[in-house]
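From the pipeline queue, job 12 of 40. The input is one protein chain; the requested action is below.

Action: predict structure.
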Amino acid sequence: MSSISWKQLRLATTESLPFMALAVVAGVALSELVLALRREAGRRKSLEMLRNPLDYERHAKEYGNPLGALYFGYVCAAGETLQACRESLSKIKLMPRSMQGVDADTRVTYFGREVPAPLIIAPTALHNLADPEGEVATARGAGKGGAVYCFNYFLSSQRVEDVAAQPGEKWLHLYLFEERDLVEFAIEDALENFKGVFSAVIVTLDHP
């Protein structure tokens, strides 16, 4: 058996380093792919188990954008308002079995426009933290579900044009900044360029 010198062994090892590095990278990539597939499988299974808003909240924190979960889950002070809202909503009980065969009409009229049900999506910002299409996806979903969508003009992640193109009833949300020129510009923009899209204007008074 021929002997191999230390110099030959070191040379052979050095020449094989790029292939070894490639193998390591490939192994790491494969491991990440397997973890991603398992995570996606867990996410899909979790979606099947969602039954109430708290389930959706937990699902978003576990599988969604961490920054988005932090932003949307933010509460002011000790969260008294959030707790009060949840307690109030928990008192509303729905019993679908008791409503079968009942011809109920949920239509309501807001500002002269009829909508299928009294559902209103409150104005929030930066929807792209929850979905790549941001407010466009929210507006589309609201339109399909028959809900009124309150569009946050100043803090939207998407263009007004793209949101306005989605079907459904929309209200324009504005902050009453001290710079009144900004507010006037937004109203004029809605009236001139998006006439008929927004049927009402709602405002936030206590924004910093």
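Job complete. Strands lie at 108-110, 113-115, 120-121, 148-152, 170-175, 198-204.
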